[in-house]
Amino acid sequence: MNNILTQNDIRQVDYKDVDLLKQFINPHGRIMSHKRTGLTSKQQRMIDEAIKRARFMGLLPYIQK
C-alpha cells in the first residue's frame, strides 16, 4: 500500500510544510490514524510530531470551527 510520503520519496517531515500536514488532519482538526492514512509506524510518528510542533508554533489550529 503506497502512501503520499512513499510516493513522493519524503524521508523527513518538516513542521513548516503546512500543506502536507493538512492532508493528515480530519475536518475536526484531529490527527488521522495510521489505518486511514496508510502510513507506517515510523512515518506516523514523524507526522504526529510535525503536526504537534506546527500547532505549538501557531501554523496549524488545534481545533477546526
Question: What can you tell me about this protein's structure?
Answer:
With 65 residues, this protein is mainly alpha-helical. Helix content is 46%, strand content 0%. The protein has four helices and no strands. The chain is globular, with a radius of gyration of 11 Å. 15% of the residues are buried.
Question: What characteristics describe this protein?
Answer:
single chain, 65 residues, mainly alpha, globular
How do you describe this structure in short?
By secondary structure, the protein is mostly helical. 46% of the residues lie in helices and 0% in strands. The chain contains four helices and no strands.
The succession of helices and strands, N to C, reads: HHHH
Count the helices. How many?
4
Count of β-strands:
0
Largest sheet: none
Average residue pLDDT: 91
Radius of gyration: 11 Å
Shape: globular
Element layout with pairings:
Blueprint: H1 4-7, H2 18-22, H3 34-37, H4 41-57
